[in-house]
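Late entry, evening session. Most of the bench is empty. Finally got around to the prediction I had been postponing all week. Sequence below, unchanged from the version circulated by S.P.
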Amino acid sequence: MKTTPPPTRELDLDILAQPDDETCGPTCLHAVYRYFGEEMGLGTVIDEVRTLEHGGTLAVCLANHALRRGYSALIYTYNLDIFDPTWFDGRDVDLAERLRSQRAAKRSKRLHEFTDDYLEFLAHGGELSMEDLTPGLLRRWLQKGIPILTGLSSTFLYRCGREIGRTKLHEDDVRGYATGHFVVLCGWDEEERQVRIADPLREGPRMTEHIYWMPVQRVINSILLGIITYDANLLVLDRPEED
């Protein structure tokens, strides 16, 4: 007989405060490592994860760090600047070859930089997928007890003002820009249609707790709008297989 998963699932995951406005990604990765029983200093993770020239990092850089430690890594991407949907239409497509061809055809310095990260990801066994971002996709992993690290638009998630600044952001509804952020999805409430979020930001706008519930549709919209700040994806990691 098929068992029905419980309507509510809360993963036993906690998260430290990010040291500054650029280290949300490594702080989320550190929380996932701890969830899987790996004790590693936050400072070490921050030092070892690749930082972009303009600050911050990408989910693929977090994934590359995990792959080097023996984790499996699956990225669901919604970034059409880098990935063409036809690469995921069921044909046997060599993604690395397509990425190299695109890099040769386009002059964007940022695309060239990000392509190198994705080529490293694929070379180390990382998997890429482009699948409709639905509540069912989030539920699939959370009900299995697997947290989801995601790059999204914090501006839309918090419904706050756009922000200016680099290492210290502050709201400015006229001069500000949409801000990207990393959080960890760590729970599912079927009845309320909400997702539990572990947030490394301690003094976020309109925030009172660092672990909170948010309507699933708001979360989905925030993830898709993450493309404005270069990341719109889900990163699913799983612990290394024991010998």
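Two things to note before I forget:
The mean pLDDT is 92.
The first strand starts at residue 8 and ends at 10.
Will write this up properly tomorrow.
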